[in-house]
Each structure stands twice: as structure tokens, then as C-alpha cells.
Amino acid sequence: MSPRPPKPKKQEFNRSVHGARGLFSSAVYVFHVVNSGLPTFSLLATPLALFGLRTTEFGVEAFFCISGFVISGALRRARSPASFLTDRAIRIFPVLWATILTIGLLGFVTRLEGFAGRSVGWFLLWLPANLLALPGFFHLPLYHPAAWSLSYEAMFYLACSGGWWLASRRGRATFWLGVPLACLVLALYPRAIYFLAGVIVAEGLIDGRWAAPFTRYPVAMLLAFLACWRGVQLLSRPTPLTMSTMFEWTHDMRLPLAVLAFAAATFGLAGLASGRGLFGRFLRLPVMQYLGTISYSFYLWHPIVMAGVKHEMMVTGVVRAVGPGAQAVFFVLALPPSLIVAHYSQIVLERGAGRWLRARLHHPAPLVVRAQAVHPTLTGVAPAGAEPLGAVAAVSGGGLDATAAAAAVAAAVTGGSDTAAAPFSGR
Predict the structure, then answer these.
(1) Number of compact structural domains in the chain
(2) What's the rounded mean pLDDT across residues 220-243?
């Protein structure tokens, strides 16, 4: 039997981190509105305003930080590498599969861009890879425009469980193989470095007094992270950030900016996780806890809902009628159905299907599920007796792949602009 990692000092459910899920998923929603290609007010179209608004895309990286933070504890609580991977699969796959099949069904019914000229055989050919969240990390046709980040999550989970399994058999010798390999992967997939930021915070590696001046101001640190990482993205153009590597950054300012962005994100997460100050109280508000609970479903469903809302706005003449207010109207009209779909997805797929699968597999509920049984505000609905409520997966920000079925949603949400597609291209 595999030796387990050392027990954490305490197994607490961090409500500030949970509320941050809601904040970061909302940021991704804002980015999709800004990147929709719809008319907006001139004040919001200035270079400075766009610089700030488009940093909301990096809710993706912020969620990678949360994943690293959460998974560090999840590994310690897991009974074995296989148990850890089972928990991750139960959390991710039900909603992912439902959204992918919905995109396929709607794509073949509407024959929108991405499905025009495609056969059912083509869809079925790449369906297993998409259901396993492989496109993104691997250069394969991507059906769901936001699922590229889940492939990063999946590779992170596999790396964690694989490292645990190897360490149990090879001991310290694994270190000499694992560290260089991890550095190479992070250099090739720079956005994945933010998993490491979460692990650093979870392991208490910046708990010293030296870090206090930085962790005391999490909002400032997170804003600094967004600005520096946006600088890296702009300097990488026309290459999308997901297609760029750190090897290319060594000749200009991108590498120093990336180091600053990583440090700021790490300090920002540490300050956020402490729960201190007004920001901590804001993240623990009931509305933020609820948004944190539905954040995974919201992340995967909202691009589909937004595509439909935008299509109706265009064909009914709403976009023409409201002129520069089109983005604001789009934000207002697409948000309620996105929240409603996410709410019921969390109940049926995350909670219901997750509970059913755990019962069949005799798999214990993770910490976040047990916490939701104690705090009804985390779900927005009262718990049924003493039964634990639904699981919430770590959310990654969205992305559009230029290939295949993803274009159906991508074109509808972004208007097919190059600037919209670039940051969402899967590797």
C-alpha cells in the first residue's frame, strides 16, 4: 500500500478561498462580454480601459492558484493515488460531459460555424479525447471552448498522483527525475506555473514575517499580478499565451514580468486565504459563497448560454437598437440564464451525480462537500437532512480553440475576432 503524505496541521474548509472561486468565475464572464465583439461605450474602448478589462481573462490563472492550494490538502487526505484521481474524476467529468454533448447536439442542429460540413463520424472520432479533457494540453480538436483549462487541471492531477506513486517506490530518487521534468513542462506550458503558487501557499512556505508586507494587501497583489501577466501576453503577440513558452521569454522583458506576476499572485493568494480585512469579509458574504459553489458549472455552461443570447440579440435587432450599449445589455441578458443553468447543474450533476457515483464506488466525500453540509449558504439551498451537498471543482478560466466544434460557441460569443480567439487557443 502506498505511504500517505504527512497529515496537514488542520483540515479546514477555507471560506475565503471558496468565495474567491465565485469572484474569479465572474471575472471570466466579464471577459467574455468584453471580448464579444459587440459595440460598447467609447470610454470603455480606450486602450487603458481595455487593458484593465481584458485582464479578467486571467481568472483562469487565478483558479489554477486555487487548484494548487486545494489539491495540496486533498492529496494528504486521499487514501491512495487512485483514490485521489477518483475524487478528481467525480468532480470534473459529469458537468464536462453534459456540456460537451450539449455543444455537439446544438452544433449539428444549428450547423453554425465549426459544425458546418462536419459529419457525425468526425464528432465521434474526437469525442473520447474531449470527454477525457485531453485537448488543450495536447493539440487536438477542442469541442468545448472553455475545456482547454481542464486539460491543464487533469495533467496537474496526474502529475501529483504519479509523483506520489513513484515516491512510494523510489523514495528520494524520484526528486532528481521529477523536478527537472516539472521545470521543463512548466517552461513549455507557462500558464501552469500558477498551480505551483497555490502549493507554495498551502504548504506555508511564505508564512514568515518577511512576507507579511506583501500578504497584507491581497487586492493590490492580485492587481499587480493581472497587470504584469497582461504585459507578458501583449509582448507575446501575435502568438497566443497558451502557445508561447518560457524559452522564448528569455530575450526580452517577458521573463522578468512573469516572475513578478508569479510572485504577486502567490502573495495575493496567501493574503486572500488568510481571510483578513474587508476583502476577506467580502469573499465570505453569502452571495460570494453561493457563486463559489456554482462556479464550476457556471464556468462550463455560461459560454453556451452566452452564444445563444448573443445570437438572439443579433437576429432580433437588439444590438442595432441599443448601439454602444450592446455589451451592457448582453451582460444583463446573459447573466440570469447562465446562473439558473449553473444552479441546477450543480444540484443535478455535481451534487446528485457525484453523490451517486461515490455511493457506487464507496468513495468518501471530499472536504468541500462535507463543509457544504454544515453551511447551507454555500449551496443556496437547504441541506436535505444531514446529507452532504454537492462538490465544487476548482474552476479555470475559459478559452476558445480555433479548431472544430469550439468555433461554434467561440464565433457566437466573440464575433470571430482574432483578439478573442488568441488567448483561448488550446495547445
Answers:
(1) 1
(2) 94
Closest Cα to residue 269, out of 200, 175, 351? Answer: 200
Predicted pLDDT of residue 307: 93
Q: What is the DSSP string of 344-401?
A: HHIIIIIIIIHHHHHHHHT-PPPHHHHHHHH-GGGTTS--STT------PPP------
| Torsion (CA) 75, 81, 83, 86 in degrees, nearest 10 | 100
* C-alpha cell, 9: 496541521
- Of 42, 38, 154, the C-alpha closest to 89 is 154
pLDDT digits (tens, 9 = 90+) for 376-387: 555 544 333 322
Domain span at 297: 16-424
Quick check: is 1 in a domain? no
Q: How far is C-alpha 239 from the geometric centre of its chain's CA atoms?
A: 21
Separation between Cα atoms, residue 127 and residue 141, nearest integer Å: 9
pLDDT computed for residue 168 by the predictor: 79
Whether residue 11 lies inside any domain: the answer is no
Q: Which residues pair with 138 in a beta bridge?
A: 135
Contact 179, 117 (CB under 8 A): no
Share of the chain above pLDDT 70, in %: 81
Asked whether 75 and 160 are in contact (CB, 8 A), the reply is yes
Residue 180 burial (C-beta neighbours within 10 Å; 0-12, 13-18, 19+): exposed
Rounded Cα gap, residues 44 and 62, in angstroms: 24
Instruction: Residue 107: name the closest of 339, 318, 325, 410 by CA.
Output: 410
Residue 326 covered by a domain: yes
How does pLDDT run across 170-189, given as a tens digit for each residue? 777 777 777 888 899 999 99
- How many Cα atoms occupy the beta-carbon half-sphere of 306 within 13 Å? 34
Residue 8 domain-assigned (yes or no): no
C-beta of residue 379 within 8 angstroms of C-beta of residue 293: yes
Grid coordinates in use for 377? 449558504
The answer to whether 107 touches 114, Cβ cutoff 8 Å, is yes
The cell numbers describing 167, all together, are 515516491
8-state DSSP, 8: P
| 135 phi, psi to nearest 5 deg | -65, 135
- Specify the 3-state DSSP secondary structure of 184: helix
Question: Which cell numbers in the block locate residue 394?
Answer: 476548482
Contact 348, 98 (CB under 8 A): no
